[in-house]
Design a protein that fits this description.
Blueprint (H helix, E strand, L loop, with lengths): L4 E14 L2 E13 L2 E6 L1 H13 L3 E6 L4 E5 L1 E7 L14 H13 L5 H17 L2 E7 L4 H14 L2 E5 L1 E2 L12 H17 L5 E7 L7 H13 L3 E6 L3 H11 L3 H7 L7 E5 L5 H10 L2 E4 L1 H6 L7 H6 L3 E4 L11 H16 L10 H15 L17 E5 L15 H11 L5 E6 L2 E2 L2
Parallel strand pairs: 1-4, 6-7, 7-8, 8-10, 9-10, 10-11, 11-12, 12-13, 13-14
Antiparallel strand pairs: 1-2, 2-3, 5-15, 15-16, 16-17
GO cellular component, one term: cytosol
Catalytic activity: guanine + H2O + H(+) = xanthine + NH4(+)
Enzyme class: hydrolase
Length: about 450
């Protein structure tokens, strides 16, 4: 270790070292050098680690957590539509396809106005950071210039993100559509523009809206662009029964097979929703290494259905959580965790011998599970040595909380109360790549 500024966070630390496994380090510590985690341990090894750091002449900043605080990995939002943020809370009397036509496309077409884009995108990035989202996988919009504005907002506020210019050659909104040639040309321009910013926290992602918005030839070309540039892919799958039926009628294939035929199923593909996937489709998705973004609030607000996350996991599919703003009304992954728990409990009422998810399961989905879903688990998701330090300090005893904290809680009880009762007020510090951004 070379001489440098070092942070040591000391206190109760909770993370998932592996899938669906949780670890508590009581009175533990994490050492951060620059952006990287260089050591993690418990009180028994702390003094030895401190002596080593002091002997190397490092400038050491020590952060001591209070008893009401825990250190956890940053949240990963695997599916969020930044342009839709102004519509959060609107249109939930409709179902998916009507909602898209009545609300979503009419709003997104307004992002030719770059002032609107900057105001909205600055707001949504700041809001998600305040709620603890250190990594977000964003759908931008059809317009290249506005999509770049979102990239610049992410860079400005220091979030980690995948950002995609939406591709859509079929639309009910006549002035919110592009030709295939425009789509491919502007996608390459967008990629080049993002790469030219040379920011290691922000990557472009290929973003066909969903199967009904493009034909197979077009999606296949987008698949080639992703492969040739080693990029991730995001889209939607099996969100709504009418949508699934229309995909089958148009292509004569299952939803997953449409994407497979288009070369869009890769180990860097994240598919939002996945409520109505067949066993065959799940086996295909698992074999390709693709993942599902579970968006429980959106699934219920738009009356799409209840996604059985345990079934996805049993098939070996990677799963993370998404807020799906504005299909979901909140940019908070904490709310998504609560909704995922509610969904799983509701499923247990109609499934024999079904054990619903518990708070530690959704904590995994919000952290390491999300990182795995976005193929970023080599960089973030837990406090493994060598990963970058994306983290939250959570305090359940803050001024003017949503829920007052009268009892002294154990660290795991603090986590449980945060999952069920927490909001942005309880997220007192946010770190991305070692930098404090809240």
């Amino acid at each position: 270790m070379t001489k440098s500024e070092v942070k040591i966070i000391i206190g109760n630390i909770i993370h998932c070292p592996q899938k669906l496994k949780i670890e508590l380090l009581e009175n533990g510590f994490v050492v951060v050098q620059g952006k990287q985690i260089t050591a993690i341990g418990d009180s028994a090894t702390f003094q030895h680690q401190l002596t080593l750091l002091q002997a190397q002449g490092n400038q050491i900043e020590t952060i001591h957590l209070k008893q009401s605080q825990i250190l956890i990995p940053g949240f990963v939002d695997t599916h969020i539509h930044a342009p839709q943020y102004p519509n959060a809370g609107l249109g939930y009397d409709k179902t998916l396809l009507d909602w898209l036509n009545c609300y979503t496309f009419n709003l997104e077409r307004r992002y030719r106005d770059l002032n609107l884009a900057e105001n909205v995108f600055d707001a949504v990035v700041k809001k998600t950071i305040n709620h603890g989202t250190t990594t977000a996988c964003y759908f931008a919009c059809l317009f290249t210039e506005a999509s770049i504005v979102l990239v610049d907002s992410v860079i400005k506020y220091g979030q980690r993100a995948l950002v995609g210019k939406v591709n859509m050659t079929k639309s009910s909104c006549r002035d919110y559509v592009e030709t295939e040639e425009e789509s491919l040309e502007n996608t390459i321009k967008f990629i080049d523009n993002v790469v030219s910013r040379n920011n290691p926290l922000v990557q472009p992602i290929i973003t066909p809206r969903f199967a009904l918005s493009a034909d197979i030839e077009h999606m296949t070309e987008l698949g080639y662009i992703a492969k040739n540039n080693n990029l991730s892919i995001q889209t939607h799958i099996s969100e709504n029964l009418d949508e699934v039926r229309l995909v089958k009628e148009e292509f004569g294939l299952s939803y997953a097979n449409v994407y497979d035929k288009s070369n869009l199923l890769t180990d860097k593909t994240v598919l939002a929703h996945g409520i109505y996937l067949s066993d065959e489709e799940l086996r295909l998705i698992a074999a390709k290494g693709s993942s599902i973004s579970h968006c429980p609030e959106s699934n219920t607000c738009l009356k799409s259905g209840l996604c059985d996350v345990k079934r996805l996991l049993e098939f070996g599919v990677k799963v993370g959580l998404g807020t799906d703003v504005s299909g979901g009304p909140s940019p908070s992954i904490c709310k998504a965790m609560r909704s995922a728990l509610d969904t799983s409990v509701c499923l247990s009422f109609s499934k024999e011998n079904y054990e619903p998810l518990i708070y530690t399961d959704v904590f995994y989905l919000a952290t390491l599970g999300g990182a795995e879903a976005l193929n970023l688990d080599d960089k973030v998701g837990n406090f493994t040595v060598g990963k970058e330090f994306d983290a939250l300090i959570v305090d359940m005893n803050v001024e003017n909380p949503q829920i007052d904290c009268f009892l002294e809680c154990t660290p795991m009880e603090i986590l449980q109360k945060f999952v069920y009762c927490g909001d942005d007020r309880n997220v007192v510090s946010v770190f991305v790549a070692g930098k404090n951004v809240k």
